[in-house]
Specification:
There is one protein chain. The protein contains 21 helices and 18 strands. It is globular. With about 550 residues, the chain is α/β, with parallel strands linked by helices. It has a six-stranded mixed beta sheet, with helices on both faces. Strands 9-8-7-10-11-12 form a six-stranded parallel beta sheet, sandwiched between helices. It has a six-stranded parallel beta sheet with strand order 15-14-13-16-17-18, sandwiched between helices. The structure holds zinc ion.
């Protein structure tokens, strides 16, 4: 095609400027890093000071510390791309030649980037690449020979983070004075400046790579994750890492997590027992029950135990039982002083995604995911039930309004309006819920959709979710089933716990709801604020728009 011909596809596409010797850079010998291959950087306000519609190379001013920070990423073998909205091209404020001169100046000051991805459009063009659409992120990943989920994007405004998450990448927000407070509240990962963002990217990358092996060959590893289905599912990558280094893996879980434990790859045997210091509605401590648990754990004959917990749970009571059961090597995360209860005492900052938090404990105990096993949530293929035949073809939207914790459930009247709006927009809606949520699912489905309330167990729900084009759900188990199936999520996320820790992991996601609502970080099981304002304000049209954003990502719709 000649340069002067109008190419309708080109008009809607990002401009890609690849480095001449793209194969050469960034490859460092050794095993593939577990988390990331590439870092994508917004340009204006992130790498260089924001000079609106700048076409003048003389006005390029890097942010403080940018060159050294980028060189740290290059030295770590990460590939770098710039992903930038330049609507000044569409508006005629500068020419492409001027923009190239600006980019040449940026590279002169900050070093070479492996690719430049530019959206030349403005909002009226309806393109797929202008952030917050995910197109630039997806194009950058392709250009760098990786996938969006192996990329982390650094940007200074909400639309950078939204684009990253909608593509399934991680997103770090580095606020500037122009960043809006609600954008900061909604971001799951915030850094004070570019060097701090880079330091945390490298720290997280390093934290999941073991510096030691587990030592003597591990015949049997005992892994522990109590609490509910979602907790067990997000621990899956870490359990697979342990399974890669041990001949046999025994998982101790609680009754509320048992169905999820049955779905996890790498688990050879399950012991189910409630732990009264973990359960949200605990029974009184029964000394006899704990004595029999201790005996049972001792009978496992484990060489090592790895006790996984959430950031608000203590591993120490169980570590004591494990010591009494005769287990010699015990690893856990503990900010509390563990005395002689732990051999590997690991610590993790707040805000790390739960799957990575668990992977970093596995790494501290000497385990890593083998090459080729991505750090994504996964389910055993043989454990997922076949999907009921009467649901029609794949490609429906699953709407799951409930949650075991009411503070994280979508208010029924909001879910009802969402069901109606989705149906009006032409989506086929399946409304799912547990046996005790039948009244809600019936009410929601009456507004548009098929009521599946109480019809499925977790394995059956996993099968239904796997064939969805998207799942609309709060911060609850089915969000993690969607992540495990690679199905995009519209996350109606109550901010009772950090989104950065509990948001759907490594799957295209749009977050909705008021992230700054007063329930933020309360960890409340039932909403402490009258009216449940964090989710009540969701406009059903936002859900329809979110699905549109995820659909243009291309990766999610099958
Ligand atoms: Zn564009």
């Amino acid at each position: 095609m000649r340069q002067d011909q109008e190419d309708p596809y080109q008009r809607r596409s990002a401009r890609v400027y690849a480095a001449a010797d793209r194969a050469g850079s960034g490859s460092v010998a050794g095993p593939r890093p577990v988390l990331y291959d590439a870092v994508l950087l917004d340009r204006d306000g992130t790498l260089i000071e924001d000079v609106p519609y700048n076409g003048d190379p003389e006005k390029v001013r890097p942010v403080p510390g940018a060159r050294a920070a980028l060189d740290r990423l290059r030295a770590a073998g990460l590939r770098l791309a710039v992903v930038t909205n330049q609507s000044g091209l569409a508006r005629g404020y500068f020419t492409e030649e001027q923009m190239r001169a600006v980019h040449a100046r940026v590279e002169e000051l900050l070093g070479r980037f492996d690719a430049w991805l530019v959206c030349p459009h403005d909002d009226a063009d309806g393109c797929d690449c202008r952030k917050p659409a995910p197109g630039l992120v997806l194009a950058a990943a392709r250009e760098l020979g990786t996938t969006a989920s192996r990329c982390v994007l650094v940007g200074d405004i909400g639309r950078d983070v939204v684009a990253a998450l909608a593509a399934g990448a991680a997103g770090v927000l580095v606020p500037t004075p122009v960043t809006r407070p609600e954008e900061i509240a909604a971001a799951g990962w915030v850094a004070t400046d570019l060097p701090a963002a880079v330091a945390e990217i490298l720290r997280r990358q390093q934290a999941v790579q073991p510096s030691t092996s587990p030592g003597e060959p591990v015949r049997t590893a005992l892994v522990v994750r109590s609490d509910s289905a979602g907790d067990v599912l997000v621990t899956g990558p870490a359990i697979r890492a342990v399974a890669a280094g041990a001949q046999r893996v025994v998982l101790l879980c609680g009754p509320r997590g048992r169905a999820a434990a049955d779905l996890l790859p790498g688990v050879d045997e399950i012991i189910e027992h409630p732990l009264p210091w973990i359960d949200p509605t605990p029974e009184p401590v029964d000394p006899e029950a704990l004595r029999s648990l201790t005996a049972r754990l001792g009978a496992v004959g484990a060489d090592q135990a790895v006790v996984f917990t959430s950031f608000h749970q203590s591993a120490l009571p169980l570590a004591l039982l494990l010591r009494m059961a005769g287990i010699d090597r015990i690893a856990a995360i503990s900010d509390d002083y563990p005395g002689s209860l732990l051999d590997v005492r690991h610590r993790v900052p707040i805000g790390v995604p739960e799957p990575e938090r668990a992977l970093s404990l596995a790494a501290a105990a000497g385990y890593r995911l083998p090459d080729g096993d991505e750090p994504v949530l996964r389910l055993r293929r043989d454990a997922v039930a076949p999907r009921p035949a009467d649901l029609g073809d794949p490609g429906y939207v699953v709407l799951h309004p409930g949650s075991a914790a009411s503070s994280r459930a979508c208010p029924p009247e909001v879910a009802t309006r969402i069901a109606g709006a989705l149906t009006d927009a032409g989506h086929r809606v399946l409304v799912t819920g547990g046996p005790d949520e039948r009244a809600i699912t019936a009410r929601v489905a009456a507004a548009g959709g098929t009521d599946l309330g109480g019809r499925t167990d977790l394995a059956g729900l996993a099968a239904i979710v796997a064939d969805a084009s998207a799942v609309v759900v709060g911060n609850t188990g089915p969000a993690h089933l969607a992540a495990a199936a690679g199905v995009p999520v519209v996350s109606l996320f109550a901010p009772t716990v950090p989104f950065g820790q509990w948001g759907p992991y490594r799957v295209p996601t749009v977050r909705l709801g008021n992230a700054a609502a007063p329930c933020r970080d309360t960890r409340a099981a039932s909403c402490p604020v009258p009216g449940h304002p964090c989710l009540r304000g969701i406009d059903p049209d936002e859900v329809v728009d979110a699905l549109r954003t995820l659909a243009v990502s291309g990766g999610g719709i099958r």
